């Protein structure tokens, strides 16, 4: 993996998320939130608003991933645990969700933060994944934060149908030898379905954090503490 790869990096983002474009995107964000608060479906609303402003696919994806209803915003905030509570029990990690976000951050790719305070990527990987040069760095940072917060037991969940999930499992177990806390890695058919029923979950996936019992905003903590060069776009300002 000596080749340098840039996960989720798109040169066109300098145009799609320029200061001028952000003015319109933030206006659209408010309009979308107003409509979905009145029970309009977000897919239809993003299409409607996106057509009005002639947004690109990347811009529409950013708006969809960064906007939730006021109701869900409140639910997510109530479920969110302080990162300093990590030592109080097992930590259940949505592995691809966390790893890919960190890889994008390390690659200088665009990250989006919305009205729920979670940071999400625009990588758009669906069922395909390969380890890149940023994967090792991401795992080092995950271990660093977990050790700093005195984690006792961590369980990583990986979707087995996703390509190279077995290789990532081996890589995590390799790093776990130097972490100093109990680590398990589980290959499951659908990690989201498993995590939806658990507490103390690490994820920024909207469906997961809406359904799980409690969660940590760990990706945001790692990015803010360790990845100063991360390119984060805030659409809720």
TrEMBL record:
Domain annotation DUF5616: ranges: 84-220
Domain DUF434: 25-79
Tree of life domain: Bacteria
Coiled-coil regions listed: none
Pfam family name, one: DUF5616
InterPro entries documented for this protein: DUF434, DUF5616
Listed name of the protein: DUF434 domain-containing protein
Organism: Clostridium uliginosum
Phylogenetic lineage: Bacteria, Bacillati, Bacillota, Clostridia, Eubacteriales
